[in-house]
Amino acid sequence: MKMSTKHHIIPIFVPHIGCPNDCIFCNQKKIATDKTNVDTKGIANTINNYICTIPETNEKLEIAFFGGSFTGIDMDIQRELLETAYYYKRNGYVDRIRLSTRPDYIDDKRLHLLKQYGVDIIELGVQSMDQEVLLNSFRGHSDLDVINASRLIKDYGFVLGLQMMLGLPTSNYVKELFTAKQLISLKPSIVRIYPTLVIKDTFLEKKYFRGEYIPLTLNEAIIICVDLLMLFNYYNINVIRIGLQPTDNIAENKDVVAGPFHPAFRQLVEEKIYKEILTSFFKNIGNISNNIQVKINKKEISNFIGQNSSNLKYLNDSFGIDKVKVLGGDISKSSFYIENKDMNYEINIREYTEKYLLNKKLITIDD
């Protein structure tokens, strides 16, 4: 399946009954329930409300189940939930159905049910491929579970998504890179990257206040995510999210106790990648003008400029470029253009990504 980057999500939050595990970072309460508690009418109303309010465009419309390990739910409850969603897909109201689950809750029986009811995308909460990290995070599954589940999902023809976390207990930069490379080897279509946050009412919060866990700083998390994002981009794997989605509760002074939280975390990562590319470019050309013009995809302008114009200030401080005119247009995101005096340069982002990764020895020339 070709993944469209333009789509609307209809979120369906299911009770956290599919996961009996208590991961160190998770505070979702386990709700004792049975199949009679599934409010299919309420789910249908939610879907109808979204369909009525979303403008008619060519964008894809997708039902996504959030809130737990979907395939860990009782099979009868899964069937009730899926029947409701599949009605809308079968009748052309929505284009895709997505869900997330644990690697150890994937088998032929479960996948056969998901295929029967038109599920398109399955995301696995991997978090790490390092056994020590998995053990100390109370994940309850192994790296082999991830490998086996990923292969089975792809064998059944589903779109595979993988989610990883960084900054978990006993993890480090080397282990984050190991996890990323292991995920790349499984050839997912999509990836999510989540820096670990200390959330209220979790065991990780207790360890944090006991001084047994030190979260990543915001800058540390950004630096690691720059390398991870560039690595995934190099292998043409779509990173659809970096950082936890801000909500009423997922915010500083609310449920987030500590950790590298920022409401625009991804932009901080993207702007630093542009900073790395600009540094590499201007260090290798002579006779730099103090007045340049940049042409870039219009959706990339804010990432290029940076929050609080951080990249423009950097160009001034580091290279004496105090006048930067940034023009946005309908050009490919794979390149941007710099006009310096009478010279025009095309900056091929993939070439600079490869150079960056080679310099840091994150890839080899044969990759």
Automatic annotation (TrEMBL):
One of its GO terms (molecular function) is 4 iron, 4 sulfur cluster binding. One of its GO terms (cellular component) is cytoplasm. It comes from the Bacteria. One of its GO terms (biological process) is tRNA wobble base 5-methoxycarbonylmethyl-2-thiouridinylation. InterPro entries: ELP3 (IPR039661), Elp3/MiaA/NifB-like_rSAM (IPR006638), Radical_SAM_C (IPR032432), rSAM (IPR007197), rSAM_horseshoe (IPR023404), rSAM_sf (IPR058240). Its cofactor is [4Fe-4S] cluster. This is Histone acetyltransferase, component of the RNA polymerase elongator complex. Residues 2-241 form the Radical SAM core domain. Keywords: 4Fe-4S, Iron, Iron-sulfur, Metal-binding, S-adenosyl-L-methionine, Transferase. It comes from Proteiniborus ethanoligenes.
